[in-house]
Amino acid sequence: MAPNPLHLLEPRDCALLLIDQQAGLAFGVGSIDRQVLMNSVVALAKTATVFGLPVVASTSATKVYSGPLMPAVKAALPGVEPIDRRSMSMWEDDKARAAVLATGRSRLIVSGLLTEACVTFAVLSALSAGLEVYVVGDACGGLTTASHELALGRMQAAGARLTSWIQVLLEMQRDWTRHETYDGARAIVESHAGGYGIGLAYARDMIRPA
């Protein structure tokens, strides 16, 4: 299905790819506070659920180093079973790559660890395969701020679009009168979007229409 003419994200065009959201890799993240990172990843996962996006989760070295998909992420994605692999690049794993392509979606939204390695490798390969790729920068973590930003720059230069979890949610919702996703989207904002979420909760509880 061709992307919409406004070039804005539409749920019907998109799939979410989560790469190696595992504690063993999160320990090495130095580009962002780990609690902030987890907040972003969980919010993004919940966004995919609310808007009905197909989700592919892939893990690596679960038994020897990285551990399983982090519990908070797994809880936000009921029914999604991660695909474990050996290769550092999930695109070189036949099962993981096939799962992404089987979604039939032209736009791939990507979050993962580590930005410099598993995220970059998958994104560059997906771009080469003809997919339009959006990297959720605040839902990715690198070893250092510099290496994270350099990796984002390399992906962007190759054609990836950079975005944030809140932009993904708001771009898909766009109109708060879209009732089918209103409650779910608003709940994510209130739980995960800091001051913006506080403001929405205030408006709901304190400001009453005449």
TrEMBL record:
InterPro entries named among the record's database cross-references: Hydrolase_YcaC-like, Isochorismatase-like_dom, Isochorismatase-like_sf
UniProt signal peptide: none
Domain Isochorismatase-like: 14-166
PANTHER family documented for this protein: HYDROLASE (PTHR43559:SF1), HYDROLASE YCAC-RELATED (PTHR43559)
SUPFAM superfamilies referenced in this protein's UniProt entry, alphabetically: Isochorismatase-like hydrolases (SSF52499)
Pfam families xrefs: Isochorismatase (PF00857)
Protein name: Blr6961 protein
Provenance organism: Bradyrhizobium diazoefficiens (strain JCM 10833 / BCRC 13528 / IAM 13628 / NBRC 14792 / USDA 110)
